[in-house]
Structure formats: C-alpha cells, structure tokens
C-alpha cells in the first residue's frame, strides 16, 4: 500500500483502482460509507449478478432453498433431484441442530438424492425421481417429502411438480417440489423465496387444531445453527410465550401445519423468511415484528416488544423478571471481558442478516465495526423496508414466482384492530418494520455488498482488523494474513450465540480470538528468508 487512505471514499478508490473500468464502475455502486443515526441513507446496489470471474462468497439458489430454509426441518425427507454432488456437498454442513423429537423421526443425518447420471440427463430423470420417492417412502414412511431440483433438472425440463402430484395421490402423504435450480437467481436468496412459496402453498395452515397457550408466537428465520434455537426456546418458555412453530430450526412439518394458530409472527432473519411473514399476515391476519436475539440487549428489547404486543401485565412482569435475571449473569461476564476487548476492531461479511445482527454482540464488548456487508441481501436489508416500493424488478427477480395471496375465507382473523395496531405502534412496535444495516453504522464504517476475494484481501491489508468474520471460503486466507477469522455461518465448532447464554459464549470466544498472541507469531513462507518448501527423500 503506497498511501495511507484516510476515509472510506479514499479506501473505496483504492479498492477498485486496479479493476478493469467496467468492473470498477459496477463495483463502485455496491460500496459506500455507513451513515449516522437519522441521516438519509444512500442507495446501495445489491441483489444483482456477481461479475463473472471474481471469487464471490455467494451460494446458489438450490443452497438457499434446500440447505437453508427446508433443510433444518427434521421429519421432512428433503430429496435432491440431481447429480450426487449437489446432495453430498449440502449434507450436514450447516450445523443446523435438532432435537430427536418424541417420535425419533429425524432425517437430518441422511443425504437423499436421486443420483442423476448421464443416462438420466439424456433420457429424462422423472422415472428415477418417482422411484426415489417410493424408496424413501418404503424405508422411512415420512409425513412429507420435499423435492429440490438442481441445475441439470431445469435444463432438461423434468416436471418435478407433476411427479410430486402423482406420488402424493399414490402415497397419501404431503409431497411438494421446489424449482430451485442453482442458476435460477443471482444467489441463494432466490431459493429462500421459492421455499417460502412452497411452504405457504403446501404446508402452512393445513391442520386446524387448538394450540394451548395464551401468548402464541412463531419464530421466522431462525435455523438453530449451533443450537441458537434451543437457547431462544428456553428464554421464550421462561417468559411464558408458547412457540407454535419455528421456520425452520428444530422444527417438524406438524409445527408448520398449525403455524396459523399463532397470534404474532416474529422475524429473526428478515432476508430469508420475510415472504412468509407477509403472506401469513394477508392470509390469516397475523401481524409480524422484526426481532433480534443476537446480542443480550437486543434479546431483551425483542422480548419486551413481544410482551408489549399481548398487552398482558402478568406476561410483561414475568418477561421483565427474566430479563433482569439473565442480564445480571451477562453483565458479570461483560465486566470481566470488556477491558480486554474494548477498542478492538472487527469486520463482518456474511449472508443476509448476520452481518447486521452480530454488530450488536461486538458493540457489547466495546469493539468497533470497521466494515460490514451482506453476500446476497436486498436493498431493504441495507436501507430499510421503506425502500421496498422503489426497488426495480429486474429479469432475475422476475424469474421467481410471486404468489397471489388472499384472506383465507375461514381462517382469516385479524389479531388486532387498526386502532390497537396504531396504539402499539406508538409504543415502539413498528409492525412490518426493519431499519436495515446501514443507518447508524457511522460514516467511518465501510459497507460492501457481495464482497469478492480481491476486495477482502485489500481490506485486510488496509485495515488490519483484530478479527474478521466470514465463512469457510475466506477462513484460511484471512488467517494466513495473521488475522483471526470467526465463521459466522457455522460458528466453527462454537455456539449457541443467540439469547443471553449465547451472548456469554460469544464474549468468551471472541476474547480468546482477539487476545491470543498466536497470529502475530506466524510468518507466511514468503515472509521468511528460507526456502518456501523443504523436503528430503527417505528412500
Ligand atoms: Fe438468514 Fe441464516 Fe443469514 Fe441466510 Fe445463509 Fe446461515 Fe447466513 Mo450462512 S438464513 S441470511 S442464507 S441468517 S446459511 S442461518 S449463516 S449465509 S447470514
């Protein structure tokens, strides 16, 4: 680095300086400084195609549909229709945990695939798909089977929906298909939307039962990575909420079926599940609020808003008591650790919600966020949901079906009157609201959408943060540059990090990572004088 850049705009110039003109022009629209609270937020380019040739962090549409949204449900047989690689490489890699459940039906440890080969590509794979569904049924007798198409399936045109329909009639269980070919969208985000649509069409609201409990909620967009959902379940139960269904961490298809019995939808990951929240409101009259259980203070705030919604003094008091008890434990640990982490710096480039949520946990340790960005989020996740009407629909987003949802003639029941909603709104329950990441990050912080590998290395050179958060693709490169990397997708082997106990786990892990001396002791081969590789033959 020749000159020491002083502000975000200068660093941005340096980031794109060596790119071809057209690439630089495109990337410039996805890189901008954060804003102070209340300041107008500039438009950021996001949810557009990655530039061919760069190394992106993104995954494919199939990954978002099968791996992310439906994969964590334990008793649905999630069957990949495609070559074995797609099923194999998405097998048990996301650390979405589950209880075994009272019936012991847990298919998460299995990789179900039709194992398509050249023969199927040439002559069609529908027969094989039918046989695979039959085989899964004979062996496991699951309550539901969900089919996921991979790239070649879309290219050869297998009608997976027709196969699902006929097999559902034949076997008498729920069978539905997702046209989530990897190339269908610009990232995994398209796969989320496709999964949301199919769950809505085929599962949610298919069982009318009385669900016990006074304060019934669903948790949308929580996937139990590293046990996060277990901790959230513990807290909700302690406060007195009844969790009807989680989409989809530690969940069952039965939970999904009766999810319309809840009186409030809470949205953890806005990016992946906001579609279901919206559709359930239209169809059943269930309002939704954005929550965040990453960060102790954020968890407390979310619980307070949830309790406020039900307007029940007993629930409010109990929730306050739980918060007080839990925060006391948290404070002891923060007091011990913060002197060692205060003023340290972090960068986070991950997914479509965590790059925002995890800033809370770093701030609780007194750490400074130098930069953050999502892989595949949309403008609303950056700038706030108020920009939704201004987002232009392009060819890639038009590719994804928009369901037309109407109030259910029997099941639509507004949970609150317009006046009640307005009153609660005044109390801080901004229904359907999400402020996004950029506002409040401050003008010294850098926001980058769909960061690529070149930019990552440049940023590390320039900023030298005390910790960098990303995924497995980045991990070893970052560590070789002497900077610890925390995986924010699978948490490495750590977690849970949600809720109060999760926050404590996080503080301890981050303390160890930013204060270990090991990273300063490493010298990459090219930084030493000796030969890069030495070997002797024994033979
Ligand atoms: Fe939502 Fe997720 Fe995320 Fe996501 Fe993901 Fe994930 Fe993620 Mo990896 S659903 S957007 S598609 S919070 S798998 S549990 S960690 S990129 S930030």
Please specify the SSE layout and strand pairing.
Elements: H1 8-16, H2 21-28, E1 31-33, H3 61-70, E2 76-81, H4 84-89, E3 112-113, H5 118-123, H6 126-140, E4 144-149, H7 151-156, H8 160-171, E5 174-178, H9 188-202, E6 216-222, H10 228-239, E7 242-248, H11 253-257, E8 264-267, H12 270-284, E9 288-290, H13 296-310, H14 313-341, E10 345-349, H15 354-364, E11 368-373, H16 379-383, H17 395-398, H18 418-426, E12 446-448, H19 453-463, E13 467-470, H20 472-480, E14 485-487, H21 499-515, H22 518-521
Parallel strand pairs: 2-3, 2-4, 4-5, 6-7, 6-8, 8-9, 10-11, 10-13, 11-12, 13-14
Antiparallel strand pairs: 1-12
Helix pairs in contact: 1-19, 3-9, 6-8, 9-12, 10-21, 13-14, 14-21
The structure holds FE-MO-S cluster.
């Amino acid at each position: 680095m020749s000159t020491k850049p002083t502000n975000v705009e200068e660093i941005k110039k340096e980031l794109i300086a060596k790119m071809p003109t057209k690439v630089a022009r495109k990337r410039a629209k996805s890189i901008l400084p954060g804003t102070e609270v209340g300041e107008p937020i500039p438009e950021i380019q996001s949810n557009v195609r990655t530039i061919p040739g760069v190394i992106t962090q993104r995954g494919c549409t199939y990954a978002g549909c099968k791996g992310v949204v439906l994969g964590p449900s334990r008793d649905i047989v999630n069957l990949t229709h495609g070559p074995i690689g797609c099923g194999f490489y998405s097998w048990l890699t996301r650390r979405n945990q589950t209880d075994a459940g009272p019936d012991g039906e847990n298919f998460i440890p299995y990789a179900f695939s039709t194992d398509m080969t050249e023969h199927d590509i040439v002559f069609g794979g529908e027969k094989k798909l039918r046989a695979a569904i039959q085989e899964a049924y004979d062996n496991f007798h699951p309550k539901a089977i969900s089919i996921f198409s991979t790239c070649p399936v879309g290219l050869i045109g297998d009608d997976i929906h027709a196969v699902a329909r006929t097999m559902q009639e034949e076997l008498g269980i729920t069978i539905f298909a997702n046209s989530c070919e990897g190339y269908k969208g610009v990232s995994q985000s398209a796969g989320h939307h496709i999964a949301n649509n199919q769950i809505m069409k085929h599962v949610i609201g298919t069982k009318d039962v009385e669900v016990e409990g006074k304060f019934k909620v669903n948790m949308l967009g929580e996937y139990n990575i590293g046990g996060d959902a277990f901790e959230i379940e513990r807290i909700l139960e302690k406060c007195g909420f009844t969790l009807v269904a989680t989409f989809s961490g530690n969940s069952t298809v039965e939970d999904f079926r009766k999810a319309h019995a809840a009186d409030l939808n809470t949205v953890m990951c806005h990016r992946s599940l906001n579609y279901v929240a919206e559709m359930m409101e239209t169809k059943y009259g269930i309002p939704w609020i954005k929550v965040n259980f990453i960060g102790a203070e954020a968890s407390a705030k979310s619980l307070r808003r949830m309790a406020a919604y039900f307007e029940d003094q007993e629930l409010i008091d109990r929730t306050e008591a739980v918060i007080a008890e839990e925060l006391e434990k948290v404070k002891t640990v923060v007091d011990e650790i913060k002197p060692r982490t205060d003023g340290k710096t972090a960068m986070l480039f991950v997914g479509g919600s965590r790059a925002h949520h995890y800033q809370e946990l770093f701030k609780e340790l007194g750490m400074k966020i130098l930069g953050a960005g999502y892989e595949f989020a949309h403008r609303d996740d950056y700038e706030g949901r108020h920009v939704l009407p201004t987002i232009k629909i392009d060819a890639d987003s038009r590719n994804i079906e928009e369901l037309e949802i109407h109030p259910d003639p029997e099941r639509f029941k507004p949970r609150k009157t317009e006046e009640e909603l307005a009153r609660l709104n005044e109390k801080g329950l901004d229904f359907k609201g999400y402020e996004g990441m950029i506002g409040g990050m401050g003008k010294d912080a850098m926001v980058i959408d769909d960061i690529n590998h070149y930019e990552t290395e440049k940023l590390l050179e320039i900023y030298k943060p005390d910790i960098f958060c990303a995924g497995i693709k980045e991990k070893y490169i970052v560590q070789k540059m002497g900077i610890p990397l925390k995986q924010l997708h699978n948490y490495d082997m750590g977690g849970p990090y949600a809720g109060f106990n999760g926050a404590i786990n996080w503080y301890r892990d981050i303390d160890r990572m930013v204060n270990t001396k090991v990273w300063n002791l490493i010298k990459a081969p090219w930084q030493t004088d000796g030969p890069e590789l030495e070997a002797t033959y024994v033979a």
